[in-house]
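[09:14] KT: can someone run the structure on this one? pasting the chain below
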Amino acid sequence: MLSRRTKAFAAVAGAASFALIATGCASGADSASEEGGPVELTIATFNDFGYTDELLQEYMDENPDVTIVHNRAATSNDARANYFQKLGKEGLADIEAVEVDWFTEAMQYSDLLAEVPDSAKGRWLDWKEAAATDAEGRLVGFGTDIGPQGVCYRADLFEAAGLPTDRGEVAALLEGDWENFFDVADQYTAATGKPFIDSANSVLQGIVNQLETAYEEPDGTIVATENADIEEAYNTVVERAVPISAYAGQWSDDWFASMANGEFAAMLCPGWMHGVISGNAPEIEGWDIADVFPGGGGNWGGSYLTVPANGKHVEEALKLADWLTAPEQQVKAFANAGTFPSQTESYADEDLTAFTNEYFNDAPTGEIGIARAEAVTVATFKGPKFFQFHDALQNAVTRVFDGVEDQTTSWNTWVTEVSAF
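[09:31] RB: done, structure tokens below
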């Protein structure tokens, strides 16, 4: 069995983006000559895509005239703001990562993006590739990861609360609908006096990602405030998730620190979250992963690489994006950061199927990821304004969590806000 410790990712909330210049070729390579001379390629991502210095160095070793500069924004929100401010103008990287929640928004400007080469088409899950194909049939996004979710939990804290600790028993305990999940959470909170889960808005994300329709119909009709499923999701989160959550949302300094200090016992956990946990609680030995998710299955997250059509090095950037999203490299990225591949060939790769994560008590995260991916039955339609609608609804939950507004008032505030979108 292949066993590796997930690369630690010391995420710092609110930090400015930083650049990692992976060296290994001639200095001063900032542009390509007409004769095919040295070129410096910039790639902009966020969070942790698993693109380590070592992985990027592999490409540079194979392409000695290329230097790669990797810029990583602190959050997806920061990346989104930069992307739409500069798309079609100047200032974007040669390769820009786009998060799935705002990818449909980016697809409105597909004419500003370079097309994926024919040789790469067909390597992705059908729904992953379809979402990146515009009305003219142009594939303009290289799929990176998807986010099939399990439940990460602190076995030591479960034991202290009188709950089972074996990952199979935990999966059986949490099997079923959201009400069962909340009932178990209530048991933990009653026994310990502490929150069960990290954040209320992660639960909102999990529930919304199980809906076929959230805020917009595929034909562009806005249904946000009229969708009974969205109102039910909000009410469920406020009534059941807020009381058992440590925080309203994620990505704060306190949230990062709490992965190590035992403030909560569980997290809804896509593969890309594994590296976040291990990077922020490297000395904690209690974290484990259960092959289960409330309500069946859910996909949270996933991204694409895009190449701005007006970039300085479009052809070279397409080659690098192609290489980074090939099955072999995506399996390596998974090993580095838990970013689960969206390439179908990778699911037969022994480096994925036999992968275990030492940090999570040697959990078979490759097998768990495949099982969780197969449990996903709904791909929520996320229209161009999904990010705006959802961010505003998260703010509504936060207002209730913070005691700023009550449940009804905060919902009505959200209705007023989204009517202006």
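[09:33] KT: thanks! Residues 386-401 form the longest helix (16 residues).
[09:34] RB: yep, looked fine to me
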